[in-house]
Structures are given as structure tokens and as C-alpha cells.
Amino acid sequence: MIKKEMIAMLLAGGQGSRLGVLTSNVAKPAVAFGGKYRIIDFPLSNCINSGVDTVGVLTQYQPLKLNTHIGIGIPWDLDRNVGGVSVLPPYEKSNSSEWYTGTANAIYQNLRYMDYYNPEYVLILGGDHIYKMDYQVMLDFHKSNNADITLATIPVPIEEASRFGVCITDDSKKILEFQEKPAEPRSNLASMGIYIFSWPVLKEALISLKDQPGCDFGKHIIPYCHERGDRVFAYEYNGYWKDVGTLGSYWESNMELIDLIPIFNLYEEFWKIYTKNEWLRPQYISDSAVIDKAIMGDGCEVYGKVHNSVIGSNVVIEEGAVVEDSIIMNSTKIGKNTKLYKTIVSENTVIGDNCILGDGPDDVVNQVKPDVYAFNLVTVGEETVIPDGVTIGKNTAIAGVTTIEDYPNHRLEGGGTLIKAGDIL
After folding, report:
1. For 238-252, what is each residue's pLDDT tens digit?
2. Which of 79 and 140 is assigned the larger pLDDT?
3. Nearest-CA neighbor of 191 among 149, 253, 146, 136?
4. Which of 234, 212, 232 is nearest to 222 (CA)?
5. From residue 304, how far is each of 25, 258, 404 by CA, in Å?
6. Which residues, 6+ apart, have CB-to-CB distance to 223 below 8 Å?
């Protein structure tokens, strides 16, 4: 029988609806990040850097790009005969076909996968956070406390604590009380959605709660285990950790990468972030180009000006164009004399000549999804075409192949939404 000390189960099936058109056709963990990477690269790299060589990636929503990116795990040294990375979508059973309905339900549906490796411990991870963590240190903490469950936690401002599961602990970090998204939190020690379970404890809890609708770790599994007397501890993490669940936090965390001394450093030799690299040709920077404080991907051609921006691979920025405070993803073309201010542009997009994106007053309320399209950003979905001579205001969203007739007076006013790629907003 195969025996692994610890295996990881990486939950990567979420839609990420608060990212709007960025996730219309791609799972949130597959969204590009930092010019070169995808969000899922960070937990996968953490695994191999921590010596965890068996990872099950649970996919569901729009998995094609994610599956293609992961492949057989070569970039992360996870192409192993025993272990390695396995993509685990929902599958048809002999008597039923079930989608994953909650985080714990997804894990429950893969009991056979975990049983196959007969682990001592199971590490549960989300696929949509940006951070570096040595899971071996967390496992050592788990062992030293003879814990049944260990939650990775991080201090957050008390005014934000209601967004998280929060822990009240004693001096030994044993959890005395766990509250899932309480209206009035009594602690600012927030769960990061990263758990280490002793395998027998996890298996018993999953089987006991298998009929719980939408079975979830924070709402069901952790309270169930705590109430029955399991030893549950909080491992406090004090490094950089970002939930890029909104357009504002996604934009902000990309911008933090290009600070002179970045809070989150992509360039550390001892903790590398690995990714699948599709573009191997060099950049071309013309004599007319000006680049100031930017990350530039492979295969870019720059003839215009780039300031304080994150540019993906295979991007063309034409002469006279200005890209400022923006994120441009792979295989995008920015036309001549076009100006982008605080704009997020998804992959395989073409923006025409003489356009202005990010024009006009701040804080105009989006008419369709004011809670998503905010932060004074312009958000452009993948495979979008924007014609020549268009001006677009702030807190706007554009997706699909648009024509000049879609823009009254050649404008999309602030707070406007123009979607021509199906009904997903």
C-alpha cells in the first residue's frame, strides 16, 4: 500500500463572481497574475517548496484553461509516478452525477483518491490566494500540539473580521471558539481557509456530514469537530496573504509587485514561484518606447509608454500609446495613440487606435453591478475587441467583439456596462 505523510487537496473550482468579466470564461485560480503567472501557481509552488509532492486539484467551473495550464505538473516538479498532481473534476458515478456543492462536499467526493495514498495528514488549500507559506512548518506545529485539526490564521483589522471565520484561542493557540463570518466578531484572528487534518479525523467528519447540503469546512466541518471535542489549534501566519476576490484587491496586489521594495517579492531565490511558460522569445523595446516601473512579460513589443503597470506575455503596445496604472494580460494589442488609465485588460484582446480608457470623473456608480465594477477601474474581458476612437469612463465593464455602433457618440460613460459575450456579467 502507498503511504504518504501528507497530501494536499487544492480547491480550485470557484467562479470568482466578484471579478466580473475576468472570470466569465475562466476559473478564478486560472486568472493571470503578475504578468507571468496564474493565481493557482502560488499554492502549487508552496506545495513543492514545502516538500508536498502529492496534490489533488479539484476543478469545476470553466476548467479548460486551468487544466491546460496544470497539464501533468512539469513546471512545479509534480510529474511523478507516485503522487504528483492530479486534476479531480466531478465525475459520473454508477447511480448519480453530482456537482461539488461545498468545499467539504468536494473533498468528500474524492475520498477514494485520498484513501489510495493512505496519508497521515491532509492539507486543504484554496486556489485563489496570493501568498508564500511553508506548509512543513505548519505541519510541525500540528504535530507538536498533538492536534486533530490546525487552521492557518492571520490577524486582520477588526472591521474586516466579519468576512472571515474567526478564532478565539487560549495562550497555547488551542481554539476555544470558532465563529464563521460573525456579524460582531470577538476576535481579529481570521481563518485563511488552509487546514491540516489528521486523516482519520477528516475522514470520519466527511462521512458523518455527507448528507449536509452544501457541506462546507467553515460552516460545518470545523464546528462539528470542535463540538465533539477534537483538538483544534490556530497556526498564526504573519507573512503576506492576499485574497484577490475583488477587482480592487486584484488590481492592488498586482500594483504592489512593482513597488521599489515590494511587499510580496517574486524574485526570492529560496522560494521560487513556478509557472508554465508559453512564451520564450525575448521582448522588443523600440527607441520610441518609455518604460518606467513596470513588470514586462516575455515576447512583448513596446513602442509607446508604460508607467506603473503589469504587462503580460506577447503584448503589443503601439507607438503613441500610454499605459498607466494598468494590468494587461497575455496576447493583447493596444493600438496607436490609445491611452489606458487604471484599466484591467484580459487575454487575447484588441483595443483600437485613438481610444481613451479610464476617462472622466471618479466614483460613478456602475448601473449593473455596483459592488463588482467599482474602485474607479475599467475592466475588459478576454477576447474583446474595442474599435478605434472610443472613450470609456470609470467603473465600467466591456466584453465581446464590440463595434463603433455600440458606443453612442463614441463613448461608454462612467458606470456603463457593455457585454456582447453571452449573459455572464
Report:
1. 999 998 889 999 999
2. 140
3. 149
4. 232
5. 30, 19, 24
6. 178, 180
